[in-house]
Amino acid sequence: MQTAIFGGGSWGTTLANLLARKNGSARLWVREKELASLIRTKGCNPWYLPELELSPNLFVSDDLAQVTENAEYFLFVVPSQFYGGVLKTVREHLPKKPVIISGSKGITLDTLQTMSEVTEDTLIGLKPVFAMLSGPSFAKEVSKGMPTAVTLGCKDKTAARAIQDLLSTDTFRVYTNKDVRGVELGGAFKNIIAIASGISDGLGFGTNARAALITRGLAEMSRLGVAMGAQAQTFMGLSGMGDLVLTCTGDLSRNRQVGLKLAEGHKLLDILGQMKMVAEGVKTTESVHALGSKHKVELPITEQVYQVLYEGKDPLTAVHELMHRELKSEQ
Ligand SMILES: NC(=O)c1ccc[n+]([C@@H]2O[C@H](COP(=O)([O-])OP(=O)(O)OC[C@H]3O[C@@H](n4cnc5c(N)ncnc54)[C@H](O)[C@@H]3O)[C@@H](O)[C@H]2O)c1
Ligand SMILES: O=P(O)(O)OC[C@H](O)CO
Predict the structure, then answer these.
(1) Where are the alpha helices (DSSP H) in the chain?
(2) Is the pTM of this model over 0.95?
(3) I want to staple 194 with a disulfide (CB 3.0 to 4.6 A). Which of 114, 256, 310, 329 is the partner?
């Protein structure tokens, strides 16, 4: 079972290493030639995950033909705004019925699409089986073998079972879920709430405020998700509540870090300029803001995060406005 993994960031490297250790081989495509060469000579990924010693069974290259040779599974772990572009260049190397797995969590800015929709559009003419890997999983913890549970959104029962077996280890437990839309929306939306939680904590507000953001963020995520065809129950699982709790409370979250820095008064462009890694929530806030208008769904936390990120609103004013909305019933 050969797997080709696309994306030499922290998550792609972690999953590729997990697969190489578990299945005896895996092939990782790294976009940057210089990084691919450094990984091969140093046996680690010095740019994104230096502390992880990589398996000698992991083949690393910037050459798509070499990486895709004999592959049965195609795992994409690039930032979501680049997912479609990378998939398009890989297309000529894919079989007629490729199994495509996305580890990318986000919604495109230009077309407001989830990764399953981008896959469908990019692979017209092929018959892809799509699966979305999501749930609470910091690469740093997974790479150290710390117990982690995630979920795999996939409509095809046989493929879901096969991918579950492919990826599961003693410390990485993969559940399956038929609700692909719910799994991918949960993984994308939680990043917005992680930014909000970072803002709140950075302003010195307490655990009450954070718990309120997680819970009302979950309500907001479920409202939009159901309007877009997802099942509400999915958001109570690993890709909804699970990833919300992780990234709203865990300081390893890049999205939460963006929020903490915004609360300190830093400008968004300066924060992003100093980050080598991706904080998906920044662009997903803009996409979800537009989706809220399109589906006529009220998204008050997203609205405030959007105004802080893109309209220069003072974070304290955003919190004040959330607290002074019209009083409502919880349901
Ligand atoms: N890191 C984690 O803990 C983690 C866990 C679960 C899911 N994810 C998701 O995985 C995806 C990848 O994130 P990551 O954390 O591995 O990335 P990262 O922040 O560690 O690394 C950045 C990545 O972006 C790539 N990149 C930069 N510009 C690009 C371009 N123009 N075209 C294509 N690729 C480009 C780089 O090659 C590198 O692979 C994201 O959607 C993220 O939400 C990350
Ligand atoms: O560091 P973040 O905020 O991108 O979160 C990483 C993963 O999505 C956690 O599950």
Answers:
(1) 10-23, 33-42, 64-68, 80-90, 115-122, 139-143, 157-167, 180-202, 207-227, 243-249, 254-263, 268-273, 281-295, 300-310, 315-323
(2) yes
(3) 256
In this predicted structure, what is the pLDDT of residue 331? 85
Does residue 276 have a known ligand-binding role? Answer: no
Tokens, residue 170: 């003693």
Span from the CA of 57 to the centroid of ligand 1 (angstroms): 22
Does the model's ipTM exceed the 0.90 cut? Answer: yes
Q: Is 325 annotated as ligand-binding?
A: no
- How much is the average pLDDT of 151-177? 98
Which CATH number does 3-178 carry? 3.40.50.720
Is residue 9 annotated as involved in ligand binding? yes
- Around ligand 1, the residues with Cβ closer than 6 Å are 7-12, 31-32, 48, 77-80, 82, 86, 103-106, 137-139, 277-278, 280
pLDDT digits 0-9 by tens, 195-253: 999 999 999 999 999 999 999 999 999 999 999 999 999 999 999 999 999 999 999 99
Q: Which atom of ligand 2 is nearest to the CA of 280?
A: 4
Nearest atom, ligand 2, residue 243 CA:
10
What's the token pair of residue 101?
């797995």
Domain ranges of the chain: 3-178, 181-323
